[in-house]
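Weekly structure sync - notes
Attendees: PM, LS, DV (DV joined late)
Agenda: review two folding runs queued last week.

Item 1: First target. Sequence and C-alpha coordinates pasted below for the record.
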Amino acid sequence: MNDSGNQKRSWWQRLSAGLKRTSSSIGGAISDLVTKRKLDATTLEELEEVLIRADLGVATAGKVAEAVGEGRYDKAVTAEEVKSILAAEVEKIMAPVAQPLALDPAARPFVILVVGVNGSGKTTTIGKLAARFRAEGRSVVLAAGDTFRAAAIEQLKIWGERTGAEVVASTQGADAAALAFQALERARTQARDVLIVDTAGRLQNKAALMGELEKIVRVMKKLDPSAPHAVLLVLDATVGQNALSQVEEFARTAGVTGLVMTKLDGTARGGILVAIAAKHRIPVHFIGVGEGVDDLSPFAARDFAAAVAGIES
Protein backbone atom coordinates (compact mmCIF):
# COMPACT_ATOMS: atom_id res chain seq x y z
CA MET A 1 0.00 0.00 0.00
CA ASN A 2 2.80 2.32 0.99
CA ASP A 3 4.63 1.56 -2.23
CA SER A 4 1.65 2.31 -4.45
CA GLY A 5 1.07 5.45 -2.37
CA ASN A 6 4.63 6.54 -3.18
CA GLN A 7 4.13 5.78 -6.86
CA LYS A 8 0.91 7.79 -6.85
CA ARG A 9 2.74 10.65 -5.15
CA SER A 10 5.65 10.66 -7.56
CA TRP A 11 3.26 10.56 -10.53
CA TRP A 12 1.31 13.48 -9.08
CA GLN A 13 4.57 15.39 -8.58
CA ARG A 14 5.58 14.75 -12.20
CA LEU A 15 2.12 15.70 -13.47
CA SER A 16 1.87 18.94 -11.49
CA ALA A 17 5.46 19.81 -12.42
CA GLY A 18 4.69 18.96 -16.05
CA LEU A 19 1.64 21.21 -16.06
CA LYS A 20 3.43 23.95 -14.12
CA ARG A 21 3.65 26.26 -17.13
CA THR A 22 -0.07 25.91 -17.77
CA SER A 23 -1.10 26.31 -14.11
CA SER A 24 1.32 29.22 -13.55
CA SER A 25 0.08 31.18 -16.54
CA ILE A 26 -3.55 30.58 -15.54
CA GLY A 27 -2.94 31.01 -11.79
CA GLY A 28 -0.91 34.19 -12.17
CA ALA A 29 -3.57 35.76 -14.37
CA ILE A 30 -6.36 34.71 -11.98
CA SER A 31 -4.54 36.22 -8.98
CA ASP A 32 -3.95 39.48 -10.86
CA LEU A 33 -7.62 39.66 -11.76
CA VAL A 34 -9.34 38.89 -8.49
CA THR A 35 -7.05 40.62 -5.99
CA LYS A 36 -7.62 44.06 -7.45
CA ARG A 37 -11.38 44.37 -7.35
CA LYS A 38 -14.76 42.85 -6.63
CA LEU A 39 -16.27 40.44 -9.09
CA ASP A 40 -18.05 42.26 -11.91
CA ALA A 41 -18.84 41.71 -15.59
CA THR A 42 -15.42 43.01 -16.67
CA THR A 43 -13.56 40.69 -14.29
CA LEU A 44 -15.54 37.68 -15.54
CA GLU A 45 -14.91 38.66 -19.14
CA GLU A 46 -11.19 38.96 -18.47
CA LEU A 47 -11.20 35.60 -16.67
CA GLU A 48 -12.83 34.07 -19.74
CA GLU A 49 -10.08 35.56 -21.93
CA VAL A 50 -7.37 34.13 -19.66
CA LEU A 51 -8.82 30.64 -20.03
CA ILE A 52 -9.24 30.97 -23.80
CA ARG A 53 -5.59 32.05 -24.07
CA ALA A 54 -4.63 28.91 -22.12
CA ASP A 55 -6.36 26.90 -24.90
CA LEU A 56 -9.16 25.54 -22.71
CA GLY A 57 -11.65 26.41 -25.43
CA VAL A 58 -14.41 29.02 -25.64
CA ALA A 59 -17.16 26.75 -24.28
CA THR A 60 -15.15 25.69 -21.22
CA ALA A 61 -13.96 29.23 -20.52
CA GLY A 62 -17.59 30.42 -20.60
CA LYS A 63 -18.74 27.67 -18.23
CA VAL A 64 -15.98 28.42 -15.71
CA ALA A 65 -16.66 32.18 -15.78
CA GLU A 66 -20.37 31.51 -15.30
CA ALA A 67 -19.70 29.16 -12.38
CA VAL A 68 -17.37 31.70 -10.75
CA GLY A 69 -19.95 34.48 -11.12
CA GLU A 70 -22.79 32.46 -9.65
CA GLY A 71 -23.79 33.99 -6.30
CA ARG A 72 -20.53 35.93 -6.05
CA TYR A 73 -21.38 38.98 -8.11
CA ASP A 74 -20.12 42.21 -6.59
CA LYS A 75 -18.29 40.31 -3.86
CA ALA A 76 -14.61 39.82 -3.21
CA VAL A 77 -13.46 36.40 -4.39
CA THR A 78 -10.11 34.72 -3.71
CA ALA A 79 -7.82 33.23 -6.32
CA GLU A 80 -8.10 29.89 -4.47
CA GLU A 81 -11.90 29.89 -4.86
CA VAL A 82 -11.59 30.55 -8.58
CA LYS A 83 -8.97 27.82 -8.99
CA SER A 84 -11.14 25.33 -7.15
CA ILE A 85 -14.14 26.14 -9.39
CA LEU A 86 -11.86 25.82 -12.44
CA ALA A 87 -10.65 22.39 -11.26
CA ALA A 88 -14.23 21.21 -10.66
CA GLU A 89 -15.40 22.34 -14.13
CA VAL A 90 -12.37 20.80 -15.89
CA GLU A 91 -12.91 17.54 -14.01
CA LYS A 92 -16.57 17.44 -15.15
CA ILE A 93 -15.43 17.67 -18.77
CA MET A 94 -12.53 15.22 -18.45
CA ALA A 95 -14.14 12.50 -16.29
CA PRO A 96 -16.21 10.96 -19.15
CA VAL A 97 -13.16 10.68 -21.45
CA ALA A 98 -10.73 9.33 -18.83
CA GLN A 99 -10.85 5.72 -19.98
CA PRO A 100 -8.11 3.13 -19.73
CA LEU A 101 -6.95 1.31 -22.86
CA ALA A 102 -8.70 -2.05 -22.44
CA LEU A 103 -7.17 -4.99 -24.29
CA ASP A 104 -9.73 -7.54 -25.46
CA PRO A 105 -8.32 -10.96 -24.52
CA ALA A 106 -10.29 -12.54 -27.38
CA ALA A 107 -8.26 -10.51 -29.90
CA ARG A 108 -4.90 -12.19 -30.25
CA PRO A 109 -2.90 -10.31 -31.18
CA PHE A 110 -4.64 -7.13 -30.02
CA VAL A 111 -3.66 -4.75 -32.83
CA ILE A 112 -2.91 -1.12 -31.96
CA LEU A 113 -2.37 1.30 -34.84
CA VAL A 114 -0.51 4.45 -33.74
CA VAL A 115 -0.98 7.62 -35.79
CA GLY A 116 0.04 11.28 -35.52
CA VAL A 117 2.14 13.95 -37.18
CA ASN A 118 5.94 13.95 -37.19
CA GLY A 119 7.47 15.09 -33.94
CA SER A 120 4.43 14.30 -31.81
CA GLY A 121 6.32 11.59 -29.91
CA LYS A 122 4.73 8.63 -31.69
CA THR A 123 7.69 6.24 -31.73
CA THR A 124 8.67 7.04 -28.14
CA THR A 125 5.06 6.48 -27.05
CA ILE A 126 5.09 3.08 -28.78
CA GLY A 127 8.27 2.17 -26.88
CA LYS A 128 6.70 3.22 -23.57
CA LEU A 129 3.53 1.23 -24.35
CA ALA A 130 5.65 -1.82 -25.22
CA ALA A 131 7.49 -1.47 -21.88
CA ARG A 132 4.15 -1.23 -20.05
CA PHE A 133 2.71 -4.34 -21.77
CA ARG A 134 5.93 -6.32 -21.25
CA ALA A 135 5.85 -5.40 -17.53
CA GLU A 136 2.33 -6.86 -17.44
CA GLY A 137 3.76 -10.09 -18.81
CA ARG A 138 2.38 -9.74 -22.35
CA SER A 139 4.26 -10.69 -25.52
CA VAL A 140 4.62 -7.77 -27.91
CA VAL A 141 5.46 -7.31 -31.60
CA LEU A 142 6.34 -3.85 -32.96
CA ALA A 143 5.91 -3.01 -36.66
CA ALA A 144 8.18 -0.24 -37.95
CA GLY A 145 5.56 1.15 -40.35
CA ASP A 146 7.04 4.65 -40.49
CA THR A 147 9.06 3.60 -43.52
CA PHE A 148 9.64 7.20 -44.64
CA ARG A 149 12.19 7.84 -41.92
CA ALA A 150 15.22 5.63 -41.32
CA ALA A 151 15.55 7.21 -37.88
CA ALA A 152 12.06 6.01 -36.88
CA ILE A 153 12.91 2.44 -37.91
CA GLU A 154 16.16 2.55 -35.91
CA GLN A 155 14.42 4.10 -32.91
CA LEU A 156 11.82 1.34 -32.88
CA LYS A 157 14.53 -1.35 -33.06
CA ILE A 158 16.20 0.20 -30.01
CA TRP A 159 12.89 0.15 -28.12
CA GLY A 160 12.45 -3.50 -29.16
CA GLU A 161 15.83 -4.41 -27.66
CA ARG A 162 15.14 -2.38 -24.55
CA THR A 163 11.73 -3.91 -23.88
CA GLY A 164 12.20 -7.42 -25.20
CA ALA A 165 9.61 -6.91 -27.94
CA GLU A 166 10.08 -8.40 -31.40
CA VAL A 167 10.43 -5.80 -34.17
CA VAL A 168 9.28 -6.37 -37.75
CA ALA A 169 11.06 -3.83 -39.96
CA SER A 170 12.07 -3.30 -43.56
CA THR A 171 14.18 -0.74 -45.36
CA GLN A 172 13.46 2.96 -45.72
CA GLY A 173 10.88 3.54 -48.46
CA ALA A 174 9.37 0.03 -48.19
CA ASP A 175 5.60 -0.40 -48.54
CA ALA A 176 4.11 0.28 -45.11
CA ALA A 177 0.91 -1.70 -45.73
CA ALA A 178 2.90 -4.79 -46.79
CA LEU A 179 5.00 -4.45 -43.65
CA ALA A 180 1.90 -4.20 -41.43
CA PHE A 181 0.49 -7.31 -43.12
CA GLN A 182 3.74 -9.22 -42.54
CA ALA A 183 3.87 -8.12 -38.88
CA LEU A 184 0.28 -9.21 -38.26
CA GLU A 185 0.97 -12.56 -39.94
CA ARG A 186 4.03 -13.05 -37.72
CA ALA A 187 2.21 -12.04 -34.53
CA ARG A 188 -0.69 -14.39 -35.34
CA THR A 189 1.55 -17.35 -36.19
CA GLN A 190 3.48 -16.89 -32.96
CA ALA A 191 0.31 -16.25 -30.91
CA ARG A 192 1.60 -12.95 -29.55
CA ASP A 193 -0.61 -10.84 -27.27
CA VAL A 194 -0.13 -7.36 -28.75
CA LEU A 195 0.94 -5.90 -32.09
CA ILE A 196 1.73 -2.18 -32.18
CA VAL A 197 2.04 -0.63 -35.64
CA ASP A 198 3.95 2.63 -36.12
CA THR A 199 2.94 4.81 -39.09
CA ALA A 200 4.48 7.73 -40.96
CA GLY A 201 3.98 11.16 -39.41
CA ARG A 202 1.34 12.42 -41.73
CA LEU A 203 0.61 16.05 -42.19
CA GLN A 204 -3.14 16.49 -42.29
CA ASN A 205 -3.07 18.07 -45.75
CA LYS A 206 -1.21 15.24 -47.48
CA ALA A 207 -3.94 13.20 -49.11
CA ALA A 208 -1.54 10.54 -50.40
CA LEU A 209 -0.25 9.82 -46.92
CA MET A 210 -3.79 9.61 -45.54
CA GLY A 211 -4.53 7.19 -48.37
CA GLU A 212 -1.60 5.05 -47.26
CA LEU A 213 -3.02 4.96 -43.74
CA GLU A 214 -6.34 3.70 -45.12
CA LYS A 215 -4.42 1.05 -47.11
CA ILE A 216 -2.66 -0.22 -43.96
CA VAL A 217 -6.05 -0.71 -42.30
CA ARG A 218 -7.53 -2.37 -45.40
CA VAL A 219 -4.63 -4.82 -45.74
CA MET A 220 -4.70 -5.85 -42.06
CA LYS A 221 -8.44 -6.52 -42.31
CA LYS A 222 -7.71 -9.22 -44.91
CA LEU A 223 -6.02 -11.23 -42.16
CA ASP A 224 -8.22 -10.13 -39.26
CA PRO A 225 -11.49 -8.33 -40.12
CA SER A 226 -11.63 -6.90 -36.58
CA ALA A 227 -8.16 -5.26 -36.82
CA PRO A 228 -7.01 -2.73 -35.80
CA HIS A 229 -8.63 -3.08 -32.37
CA ALA A 230 -7.45 0.36 -31.25
CA VAL A 231 -6.29 3.41 -33.19
CA LEU A 232 -4.30 5.74 -30.95
CA LEU A 233 -3.63 9.32 -31.99
CA VAL A 234 -0.52 10.77 -30.36
CA LEU A 235 -0.83 14.53 -29.87
CA ASP A 236 1.89 16.97 -28.92
CA ALA A 237 0.47 19.41 -26.33
CA THR A 238 2.87 22.16 -27.40
CA VAL A 239 1.05 22.70 -30.72
CA GLY A 240 -2.03 24.05 -28.92
CA GLN A 241 -4.94 24.81 -31.26
CA ASN A 242 -3.36 22.82 -34.10
CA ALA A 243 -4.02 19.66 -32.08
CA LEU A 244 -7.77 20.20 -32.59
CA SER A 245 -7.47 20.04 -36.38
CA GLN A 246 -5.26 16.95 -36.08
CA VAL A 247 -7.96 15.19 -34.05
CA GLU A 248 -10.58 16.06 -36.69
CA GLU A 249 -8.45 14.89 -39.62
CA PHE A 250 -7.21 11.64 -38.10
CA ALA A 251 -10.61 10.77 -36.63
CA ARG A 252 -12.09 11.05 -40.13
CA THR A 253 -9.35 9.07 -41.89
CA ALA A 254 -8.23 6.49 -39.36
CA GLY A 255 -11.23 6.11 -37.04
CA VAL A 256 -9.32 7.18 -33.93
CA THR A 257 -10.48 5.29 -30.83
CA GLY A 258 -8.29 6.97 -28.22
CA LEU A 259 -5.78 9.73 -27.54
CA VAL A 260 -2.32 9.93 -26.00
CA MET A 261 -1.20 13.47 -25.13
CA THR A 262 2.57 13.97 -24.93
CA LYS A 263 4.92 16.81 -23.97
CA LEU A 264 2.66 18.29 -21.32
CA ASP A 265 5.89 19.18 -19.54
CA GLY A 266 7.02 21.48 -22.32
CA THR A 267 4.13 23.89 -22.75
CA ALA A 268 1.80 26.42 -21.19
CA ARG A 269 -0.91 25.03 -23.45
CA GLY A 270 -1.89 21.88 -21.56
CA GLY A 271 -5.44 23.22 -21.53
CA ILE A 272 -5.86 22.13 -25.17
CA LEU A 273 -6.71 18.63 -23.92
CA VAL A 274 -9.77 20.13 -22.19
CA ALA A 275 -10.90 21.80 -25.44
CA ILE A 276 -10.43 18.52 -27.33
CA ALA A 277 -12.38 16.53 -24.73
CA ALA A 278 -15.23 19.06 -24.70
CA LYS A 279 -15.50 19.04 -28.48
CA HIS A 280 -14.73 15.46 -29.56
CA ARG A 281 -15.32 13.29 -26.49
CA ILE A 282 -12.70 10.76 -27.65
CA PRO A 283 -11.28 8.65 -24.78
CA VAL A 284 -7.95 9.89 -23.39
CA HIS A 285 -5.94 6.79 -22.46
CA PHE A 286 -2.52 8.14 -21.51
CA ILE A 287 -0.63 11.35 -20.95
CA GLY A 288 3.12 11.85 -21.08
CA VAL A 289 4.99 14.31 -18.91
CA GLY A 290 8.59 13.48 -19.72
CA GLU A 291 11.02 11.35 -21.67
CA GLY A 292 11.40 8.52 -19.14
CA VAL A 293 9.81 5.13 -19.73
CA ASP A 294 7.55 5.65 -16.70
CA ASP A 295 6.42 9.11 -17.77
CA LEU A 296 3.46 7.75 -19.73
CA SER A 297 0.61 7.17 -17.35
CA PRO A 298 -3.10 6.33 -17.55
CA PHE A 299 -5.11 9.53 -17.67
CA ALA A 300 -6.85 10.52 -14.42
CA ALA A 301 -9.37 13.36 -14.72
CA ARG A 302 -9.22 14.63 -11.13
CA ASP A 303 -5.42 14.75 -10.99
CA PHE A 304 -5.26 16.50 -14.35
CA ALA A 305 -7.92 19.06 -13.41
CA ALA A 306 -6.15 19.88 -10.14
CA ALA A 307 -2.78 20.17 -11.90
CA VAL A 308 -4.17 22.51 -14.58
CA ALA A 309 -5.70 24.72 -11.87
CA GLY A 310 -2.50 24.56 -9.84
CA ILE A 311 -4.03 23.14 -6.66
CA GLU A 312 -2.95 20.19 -4.53
CA SER A 313 -4.68 16.94 -5.44
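Item 2: Second target, run right after the first with the same settings.
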Amino acid sequence: MVLGFYKAEPLSNVTNHLHGRKGRTFVFVDGIDSMLTRDELRAVARAVREAGGKEVHCLAWEFEMDLRLVCHELEASDGVTIKLIPIPREIMEKNRTNPPPFLEMAVLEAEVICRKAGG
Protein backbone atom coordinates (compact mmCIF):
# COMPACT_ATOMS: atom_id res chain seq x y z
CA MET A 1 0.00 0.00 0.00
CA VAL A 2 2.74 2.52 0.97
CA LEU A 3 4.83 1.67 -2.10
CA GLY A 4 1.81 2.19 -4.34
CA PHE A 5 1.04 5.62 -2.88
CA TYR A 6 4.74 6.52 -3.16
CA LYS A 7 4.62 5.43 -6.82
CA ALA A 8 7.42 2.91 -6.37
CA GLU A 9 7.56 -0.56 -7.89
CA PRO A 10 7.86 -3.54 -5.52
CA LEU A 11 11.07 -5.53 -5.95
CA SER A 12 10.69 -9.05 -7.28
CA ASN A 13 13.22 -10.22 -4.66
CA VAL A 14 12.11 -8.25 -1.58
CA THR A 15 14.48 -8.43 1.39
CA ASN A 16 14.16 -7.22 4.98
CA HIS A 17 15.79 -3.93 4.00
CA LEU A 18 14.92 -3.35 0.35
CA HIS A 19 11.27 -3.28 -0.66
CA GLY A 20 10.95 -1.32 -3.88
CA ARG A 21 12.44 0.92 -6.53
CA LYS A 22 11.52 4.34 -7.75
CA GLY A 23 13.52 4.83 -10.90
CA ARG A 24 17.11 3.95 -9.98
CA THR A 25 16.52 4.59 -6.27
CA PHE A 26 15.84 1.82 -3.77
CA VAL A 27 12.96 2.22 -1.32
CA PHE A 28 12.72 0.91 2.25
CA VAL A 29 9.38 0.99 4.09
CA ASP A 30 9.43 0.62 7.88
CA GLY A 31 6.73 -1.33 9.71
CA ILE A 32 3.40 0.22 10.66
CA ASP A 33 3.71 2.62 13.60
CA SER A 34 7.33 1.71 14.23
CA MET A 35 10.37 3.96 14.50
CA LEU A 36 13.31 3.81 12.10
CA THR A 37 16.41 3.28 14.25
CA ARG A 38 20.14 3.81 13.72
CA ASP A 39 20.72 0.04 13.48
CA GLU A 40 17.98 -0.39 10.88
CA LEU A 41 19.34 2.53 8.87
CA ARG A 42 22.84 1.02 8.89
CA ALA A 43 21.41 -2.31 7.67
CA VAL A 44 19.44 -0.56 4.91
CA ALA A 45 22.53 1.36 3.73
CA ARG A 46 24.57 -1.86 3.72
CA ALA A 47 21.87 -3.66 1.70
CA VAL A 48 21.73 -0.83 -0.85
CA ARG A 49 25.52 -0.82 -1.22
CA GLU A 50 25.61 -4.63 -1.61
CA ALA A 51 22.89 -4.41 -4.30
CA GLY A 52 24.99 -1.86 -6.20
CA GLY A 53 22.68 1.06 -5.43
CA LYS A 54 23.67 4.66 -4.84
CA GLU A 55 20.50 6.07 -3.22
CA VAL A 56 17.70 4.96 -0.91
CA HIS A 57 14.50 6.59 0.27
CA CYS A 58 13.60 5.43 3.78
CA LEU A 59 9.88 5.77 4.42
CA ALA A 60 8.87 5.51 8.07
CA TRP A 61 6.18 6.61 10.50
CA GLU A 62 8.76 7.99 12.94
CA PHE A 63 12.53 8.43 13.10
CA GLU A 64 14.95 7.98 15.97
CA MET A 65 16.30 11.27 17.36
CA ASP A 66 19.30 12.69 15.44
CA LEU A 67 19.01 10.03 12.73
CA ARG A 68 20.06 12.60 10.13
CA LEU A 69 23.54 12.65 11.74
CA VAL A 70 23.82 8.90 11.14
CA CYS A 71 22.75 9.50 7.53
CA HIS A 72 25.68 11.91 7.07
CA GLU A 73 28.10 9.30 8.47
CA LEU A 74 26.72 6.53 6.26
CA GLU A 75 26.68 8.73 3.17
CA ALA A 76 30.36 9.53 3.72
CA SER A 77 31.46 5.97 4.55
CA ASP A 78 29.18 3.90 2.27
CA GLY A 79 28.67 6.30 -0.64
CA VAL A 80 24.88 5.87 -0.44
CA THR A 81 22.61 8.93 -0.50
CA ILE A 82 19.85 8.55 2.10
CA LYS A 83 16.56 10.46 2.19
CA LEU A 84 14.33 10.20 5.26
CA ILE A 85 10.67 10.55 4.30
CA PRO A 86 7.83 10.44 6.83
CA ILE A 87 4.85 8.34 5.76
CA PRO A 88 1.81 10.64 5.70
CA ARG A 89 -0.90 9.46 8.10
CA GLU A 90 -3.48 10.33 5.45
CA ILE A 91 -2.74 7.09 3.59
CA MET A 92 -4.64 5.28 6.35
CA GLU A 93 -7.87 7.13 5.51
CA LYS A 94 -10.66 4.84 4.44
CA ASN A 95 -11.44 4.98 0.70
CA ARG A 96 -8.31 7.03 -0.13
CA THR A 97 -7.33 6.55 -3.74
CA ASN A 98 -5.08 9.52 -4.51
CA PRO A 99 -1.62 9.71 -2.92
CA PRO A 100 -0.93 12.33 -0.26
CA PRO A 101 2.32 14.31 -0.56
CA PHE A 102 5.48 12.55 0.65
CA LEU A 103 7.90 15.25 1.82
CA GLU A 104 11.50 14.72 2.87
CA MET A 105 12.13 15.26 6.56
CA ALA A 106 13.13 18.86 7.22
CA VAL A 107 16.65 19.51 8.43
CA LEU A 108 17.80 22.59 10.29
CA GLU A 109 21.44 23.42 9.88
CA ALA A 110 23.15 26.15 11.87
CA GLU A 111 26.64 27.58 12.12
CA VAL A 112 28.03 28.72 15.45
CA ILE A 113 29.52 32.20 15.42
CA CYS A 114 31.37 33.47 18.50
CA ARG A 115 32.18 37.15 18.96
CA LYS A 116 34.00 38.88 21.78
CA ALA A 117 31.89 41.32 23.75
CA GLY A 118 32.81 44.95 23.16
CA GLY A 119 35.11 44.27 20.26
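Discussion on item 2: Residues 16 and 56 are 14 Å apart (CA to CA).
Action: LS to circulate a short write-up before next sync.
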